[in-house]
Amino acid sequence: MGELSKKVCVVGAGSWGANHIRVLNAMGSLGGIVDSDQLRIQHLRKIHKNIAFYYNVSDSFKDSFDGYIVATPAATHFQIAKIIIQNRSHVLVEKPLALNVKDASELNELAQENGTNLMVGHLLLFHPAILKIKEMISDGAIGELQYLYSNRLNLGTIRSEENILWSFAPHDISIFQFLVKKFPIEVLSRGGCFVQTDLHDTTMTVLQYPENIIGHIFVSWLHPFKEHRLIVIGSKGMISFDDSSKKKKLNYHDKTINISDGVPTKFEGETLEVEFNREMPLDRELQYFVDHLDGSPIDKCDGNSAIEVLKILDMATNSLTGKD
User: Fold this and answer.
1) What phi-psi label fits residue 40: left (phi over 0), alpha (psi between -120 and 50 degrees) or beta?
2) Pairwise CA distance, residues 283 & 269, whole Å
3) Domain 8-121+282-298 has CATH 3.40.50.720
4) What is the three-class DSSP state of 126?
5) Residue 182: partners with Cβ closer than 8 Å, 6 or more residues away
6) Does residue 262 carry a pLDDT above 90?
7) CA 66/CA 293 separation, integer angstroms
8) Contacts of 162 (CB under 8 A, 6+ apart)
9) How confident is the model over 179-183, as a mean pLDDT?
10) 125-280+312-320 to CATH, choices 3.40.1060.10, 3.30.360.10, 3.30.40.10, 3.20.20.105
């Protein structure tokens, strides 16, 4: 292997792992690739001449890497991340960190014991538009946060190992937690199983937060068109962002409801397009991970935030299946 300032080994070279490989290679920080598919490894060897290849993660420990990225199927995250942390290596694990709170908590505690950074791939927290929305809320542009909703809809790709709630909603839950900065008091979820028995393909989840803040998340892979839309409502203004549109506009709406002599009246001012950095979220996420491979603590997408998202997913699942 060539000399790299920071060397990262990617575990899992499938569709999403390939994106990590591409970006890390462009950064000059790709050091190794682990994948059990021999044909895939043979193909990648032709592209990446100076990279180390392994068929299992344990074999990679004979070489020295500054960090690992786990981009394997969700059911394997816990076991793979565990042996990487036990090897005292920093690791970024794609969402979800684990399939239950217990396993996620064990990984988080293990990382703390071994002095390693554990990061979870909540990619949209590195999206420049989401960061701009957070800045606008913090600056008081919309007044007091009141209500927010997210639609993440498409036709397929339908999974058979996880329902739509676990497949799509972690993105939106992580965004809500990032913007609201409180844990919900109550989570209610309802949905339908139309394509596969006992596997929800459409869900609507309502989150009740302290201070009368409400959020709802609508996710579906049984929908006629793609829509990734986030709306944030405040006491003095509103924000909309449509990530599925061609122009991906972020808008501030000078609109609100005023109370005069006990009578609600609407105020409709201008709608202004808000400029934001157009960097790719994955580039920013991986740069953040690489920047903290020196062991400096991460303050974003850490194990604690991953556990928080999983707890909310559990609450939603219990509501969805009638166990709440």
Assistant:
1) alpha
2) 36
3) yes
4) helix
5) 209, 210, 211, 213
6) no
7) 6
8) 74
9) 97
10) 3.30.360.10
Contacts of 139 (CB under 8 A, 6+ apart): none
Name the helix (H) or strand (E) containing 188.
Answer: strand 186-192
Query: pTM here?
Result: 0.93
Instruction: Write the pLDDT tens digit of every residue in 45-73.
Output: 999 988 999 999 999 999 999 999 999 99
State the span(s) of the chain assigned CATH 3.30.360.10. 125-280+312-320
DSSP codes of every residue in 46-61: HH-TT-EEESSHHHHT
Closest CA to 202 of 219, 215, 186: 219
DSSP string, 73-88: -GGGHHHHHHHHHHTT
Q: Which two tokens stand for residue 11?
A: 């575990």
Domain limits, CATH 3.40.50.720, in the chain: 8-121+282-298
Across 193-215, average pLDDT: 96
Q: How many residues does the chain have?
A: 324
Residue 238 pLDDT level (bands cut at 50, 70, 90): very high
202-209 and 186-192 beta bridge pairing: antiparallel
